[in-house]
User: Fold these one by one.
Assistant:
Number 1:
Amino acid sequence: MTNILIQAVLLGGYYALIACGLAFMFQVMRVINLAHGSLAVVSAYAVWSLSDTFDMSPFVALLAVVPVMGVAGWLLQRLVLERAVRGGELLPVLSTFGLAIVLDNLLFQQFGADTRSLSPMVGDLSWEAYELPGNIYVGKLPVYILIAVIVIIGGLDLLLKRTALGRQIRATATDPDTAGLVGVDARRAAGIAAALATMTVAVSGAALGLRGTFDAYAGAPQLLFAFEATIIGGARSLWGVLAGAIVLAVAQSVGAQIHPQGFLLGGHIAFLVVLFIRLALKGKAPLRLAGIAQLTRKGAAQ
Amino acid sequence: MTIHRWTWQSKLTFTLAAALILILALVPAFASDSVNERLTVLFIYVILAAMWNAMAGYGGLVSIGNQLFFGLGAYMTIRLADAGINPFAAMVLGAVIVAGLSWVLSLFMLHLRAGEFAIGMWVLASIAHLCVNLDPLIQGETGTSLISLNAYAIADRRMMIFWAALIGMVGLLALLFAVLRTPSGLAMQAIRDNEEAADSIGVNPMRTKRLFFVLAGFGTAVAGALWLAQVSAFQPKTYFSVQWTAYMIFMVLVGGLGRFEGAILGALIFFAAETWFAATGVWYLIGLGAAALLFSLLLPKGLWGWIATRTGVSLMPLGYRVHMETPSK
C-alpha cells in the first residue's frame, strides 16, 4: 500500500508538470489552451529527433527545445490567442482545438503510427532506482521529474510574486486595460507569460517521452490529465495544481487496484467528485449539499 | 411602420424546402444504393451540425464532448435491441434515455464556464466510453453489431434507414426552428449576444441553456443511432472519438456559428469536402483543423454570417424585421 502511494505521488509529479503550464495560462490569460497536450507531444518529438539525429543526450536536446518552444508560445499568443480572446471567451476554445487537430495530424504525417520513446537514449537511468526501507524501489527518473516540477512551480511562483515582470503579468491578468494605463505593456506581458507556459510544456513533453512511449495522437489524453489536475487543484495557485495532480494519480492507482480497467476511470471519478463538491460549496449543485453550503456561508459571515 | 418576420426569400425557401423534402423522400425509388447511403450520411451530418450549433451558437456552450451523446445514442440502441425491442423503436427510445441523462448532466455541467465546460464534456465522453467498454455485451473495444436489423431484407433495410434519417433530420430541424421562435429561443439568442445583459432583463439563462443542452443531447443521440443503423457495427472507440466533435466544429464554424442556415450550409460543405478529399487521409484532417482555426480567427461568423450581413438575406426567419414606410409626399 505504501509502495502504491509512493508510486502514485511520483506519477502525480508528472501530471503536475504537464498541468502547470495549462494552469498558468488559465490563471494569467483566462484561456484554456486545447492544443496544450499536442504541444507537449510536439516537444517530445523534437527532443527525440534531435537526440536521434545528433546522437545526443535527450537532456541536452531539451536545452535546445525549451527556447524554441518558448518562441512558439509567444507566437501562439500573438497570432492566435490575442486575436481569439477579443472575439469572446468561446473563440479561444475553438481556435486552439483547430490548432490541436492540425498539430496531431502533421505529427502523424511526419512520424507515422509507430510509438517512440526517449528511454533507450538515457541508458541505465530508465530503470535505475533508489531502494527505500521496506523493500520499496522508487525509479530515479520519476524522482527527478518530481524535483523538476517543484523547481518549476517554485520558480514561476517567485517570478509572479517577487519580480517586476511578475507584477506586470498579474496586473495584465486582472485587467489588461488598466494595466496599460499605468504603463504596463500588456501585449508584452501576455506574450512572455505564454512563452513561459510553453517552456514548461517542453519539459513535460520530454518527461512524457522519458517515462514511456508516445505517438502522434498522445496529446489528447495529456490535455485531459492536465485539465483534471488543474480543476481538482482549484486553479488558484500552482501549488494547488501539484496537490490536484497527486490526488488524480492516487485516484487512478486506487482505481487500477479495484479493476484492471479502472485506472483512467478512477481519475475521472475523482475529477467529478471534486467538481461536484466545489459546485455544492458555491450553492450551485443540484442537491446543494445544503448543510455544507450554509455552514461555509455562515463561516464567511462571522 | 410594420413589423414582420417573413420576407419573399424566406417564403420561397420554405416552398423549395418542402418540395426538396418530398423529392428526397422519393429518392430510394429511383436512385442507386450508393446514392442512398451517401444521402443518409449527409442527413446525419446535418443533424450533428445543427445540434452542435444549437448548443454553441445559441447557448454559448462550446462542447468538445458531443461524442458522448453520439456514442451513447448508438450504445442505448444496441442495449435496447438486445432486450428484444424493435431496432427502429430502440433508436428513438435510446435517444429519449440519452436526453434524460443529459438533463441530469446539465444540473452541474452548465455551471462551468467556457473552456472548463468544453473539456469537462470531453472528460464525460471519456467516462462514458470507459463504462461502455465494461459492458460484457459490447466485449470491450472489439465491439458488437446491431444484429436484429438483419431481420429485414437488405433492400428494405436500406430504404427504411434512409427514411428514418430523413425523418430524423427534418423533424429535428423543425423542432429546433420551432424552439428558436418561442420566447425561450429568443432568450437563448439574447444570452448568446450578451449573457449579463440578458440576465438583467429577466432572462433565466440556466433554464434556456438546459433546454438546448437536452435538445442537443437528444438530437446527437438520434444521429448516433442512425449511424449505427447505417454501418451496423458498434466499436466504442469509433463512436466515442473526439473526431466527431471536430467534424461538428468544422461544419458550424465554416457554415456560420449561431445561424440556422449556417449549420446546414456547413454540413453540405463538409460532405463535399469529405467526398472529394477524404482519400488524402491525414492531409484532409489537417485541412479540417486549419479551416476551423482560420475561420475562428478571421471569419468567426462563418460563410453564412458573412453572406447574411452583406446582403441582409434571411432564409429561415427567426427574428423580426422592422420596415419603415417611406413618408408619402
Number 2:
Amino acid sequence: MDLSLFVIQFLNGLQLGLLLFLVASGLTLVFGILDFVNLAHGALYMLGAFVCAWLTQVLGNFLLAVLLALPVTAVAGLLVERFIARPLYARDHLDHVLATFGLILVIDTLVHLVFGPEGIAVPLPDFLNGQIRLTETLVIPSFRLMIIGAGLAAAAGLYWMVTHTRLGMLIRAGASNRTMVSALGVDIERLFALVFALGAALAGLAGMLIAPITEASIGMGNNIIITAFVVIIVGGIGSMKGAFIAALMIGLIDTLGRSYLDDLFKLVMSQDAAETSAPAISAMLIYIIMAVVLALRPQGLFPPKAR
Amino acid sequence: MTRMTWITLTVMALLAVLPPVFFWTGNAFYLDLATRLTILAIAAVSLNLILGYGGLVSFGHAACLGLGAYAVGIPAHHWLYGGMDALATTNGFVQIGLAVAITALFALVTGAVCLRTRGVYFIMITMAFAQMVYYLIVSIEEYGGDDGLVIDTRSELPGFNLDDPLQLFALAYVSLVVVMLVVRTIVNSRFGMVLQGAKGNEERMVTLGFNVYLYRLVAYVISGAICGYAGALLGNFTTFISPEMMDWARSGELMFMVILGGAATTLGPVLGSAAFIVLEEFLGRLTIYWHLPFGLMLIGVVLFVRGGLMGLLRGGKE
C-alpha cells in the first residue's frame, strides 16, 4: 500500500468529517434544544456558500467574505426561526419536516433568482492556494489543511462555549428541561433564536469552506444534509460529542472506503467480482454502518443523558 | 350514504371520465397528466396506510417507487440488449411480480431496523435508507447510473396493450380503485384497528398484549409492496427510469400529497396528488421559478390548513 496516498486520503476523510461536523452540530443543537427538525439546514449551508462566493468576487478577498457572510447566514437563520420554526415548535415532527421541505424549495429558488442558475467558483488568495510538500511524494494543498484547522477550531470553540460559558450553560439546561429554564426567568424565545442562528452560521461556515473546492451550486446542500442525518443518528441525536465522533468516523469511512474497498475485497474474492461490487458497496457503506449501529443501539452511540 | 362517500364517488367518477374525454377531444397531453397523477395517487395511498393510519412518518417511500420502476426496466434492458438471460423478459407478470417482491423485501429488511426507532430517528433513517438505494443504483453503470435507463418497450400483459395511452390509464385507474379498497379493508379490519390504536397510544396497545412492532412491520411491508407496484406502472408510463425517481425530494412530495389531501382518509391521498400535479403543471407553465410559490404554498398549508383538503371539504367538522 502506498503510504503517502493513504495519508492524503486520510486527510481528505478528516476534512470531510470536520465539514460534516459543522453541518451536523447545528442540526443536533437545534434538535437537541428546540426539538425542531430542520430539513432546510442544508439550504443554509448552500446559502453560506453562495453569499461567500459572491462577496469574494465583489471584494476580491476570501477571508473578508467569510467574515461578512457568517452574520448573513446567522440572520437568515433568525428569519427562518421567527417565521417558520417558532409557529411550529408545538406541532409534531411531521409538520416540521413538511414546512422545512417547502422552505428548501423557496431558498433554492431564491438563490437561483439572485445568483443565477450557474455555480459560482471561489478564487482563493495566494497564501491559501499553494501546496505544502511534506515529503518527496506527499503534497497537500494548503487550503485543505486550513479546512481541517478551521473545523477543529470550530469544534473546540463550540466545546468551550457549551461547557464554559453562561450561554452554554443555558443551552445545556434548555436541552434537559426547557420548562424549568423558562420558569427561572430566562427568555427562552431569545435563547431559541440564538441557538437557531448559531446552527445556521455553522452550516453556512461549512458551505463557505467547501465552496473554493467544489464551487457554490444550487442543490449542494441536499446531498450533505442526508449524510449529516446519518452522522447525528449514529452519534445520538442531540449529542455534541456524538456528532463530533460520528462525523469523523463517517467522513473517514466514506473516503477510505471509496479508495480501498476494492483492494480489501480482492483479498477474499476474484478481481472481477471485487471491481464490480466495491463501488456499489462503498456507496452504501455509511448507511450499512448506520443500520448496524441502530440494530445494536437504537439511540445511537452517545445519546444525551437526560431528555 | 354520508356526504364524504358522495364526494369520494364523485371525485373518482370524474377521474374516470375526464381523462378519456380529453384524449378523444384531441388533448392527449391531459390524459398523460392524469395517468401520472393516478400512478402517484397509488403510491400516496400506500404511504397513507403507514403515515396516515399508522403514524409512521416514512421519508423514504420514493425508494419503493424507484425500485418498482427498475424491476420493470432492468429485465426489459436485458431483453433489449442481452446479458443476464435469466432476467431478460418483457412479461408483465414477471416484471410486476418482481417489483412487488423486491419492494416487499426491501421494506421488510429496512423496516425491521427502522421500526426499532421512534420519532425523528425514524424519519431520518427511512430517508437515509432510501438514499442508500439511490446511491446503489447510481453506482451501477450497466443500468445507466446517473443518466438512467431508457427502455423502448412496455410490460406485456394478456388483454392489455400498454403502448396505448388509454389502456395504460385504464390499468392505472383500476389499480388505484383496487388499492383504495384494499387499504380501506385493511384499515377497517382488526389489524388496522391495532395499527391505528398504536398510533394513538403505543403503550396501551403493548399493554393490551399486541406485538405492535410486528403489526407495524407488516403494514410497512404491505405499503412498500403497493408502492413497488405503482413504481412498475410508473416505469411503464415513462419508459425512462432514473435514480431521480427515488431522490429524497420525491419522498417529500409523496408525503406532501398525503398531508395536502388529508391523512388517514380514503380519498385524501388521491385529492392531494391531483392538487399537487395540477398545481405543479400550472405553475410550471407560468414561470421557471415556480418552485418559489410552490414552496411558499407548502409552508402555508402546514402553517394554516389543518386536516388538508379533506378537512376543508368536511367543513371544519370533526
